[in-house]
TrEMBL record:
It comes from Billgrantia montanilacus. The lineage of its organism: Bacteria, Pseudomonadati, Pseudomonadota, Gammaproteobacteria, Oceanospirillales. This is Cation transporter. It comes from the Bacteria. InterPro entries: CusF_Ec, CusF_sf. Gene3D superfamilies: Copper binding periplasmic protein CusF.
Length: 121
């Protein structure tokens, strides 16, 4: 009987305090934009090299056939990558072998923040 009374007391305490605890921000207000780089300056960067396959007309992205990027555990692949600034597109041309720096912009998203022609291997 004591065990049942104890269980009922525990359940009652959760029913009373549960909503208050769930709605409290516990001192961590404003968790919106968790993946935004302005709130997380520790977002990682990584360097890579590859060949420019194409450049978006508006300068928003490039398609790169890049070598493995070990920092990110990425194998060699061809992929479209966003450019942080469309002016970066003016620094390279199709078929250029380039070195680039990626910056994390979200949990699994990256953008190129630096790109330049590199000596061929």
């Amino acid at each position: 009987m004591k065990h049942i009374v104890l269980q009922m007391a525990v359940v009652a305490s959760f029913l009373i305090t549960g909503p208050a605890v769930a709605s409290s921000d516990h001192g961590h207000a404003n968790h919106a934009n968790h993946g935004a780089t302005d709130r997380h300056p520790e977002m990682r960067t990584a360097e890579g090299v590859g060949t420019v396959q194409s450049i978006a007309e508006d300068g928003s992205s490039v398609v790169l056939a890049h070598e493995p990027i070990t920092e990110l555990r990425w194998p060699a692949m061809t992929m479209e990558m966003a450019l942080a600034d469309p002016a970066l597109a003016e620094l390279v041309k199709t078929d250029d072998y380039v070195a680039f720096v990626l910056r994390q912009t979200g949990e699994t998203d990256y953008e190129i923040i630096s790109i330049q022609a590199a000596p061929s291997q």
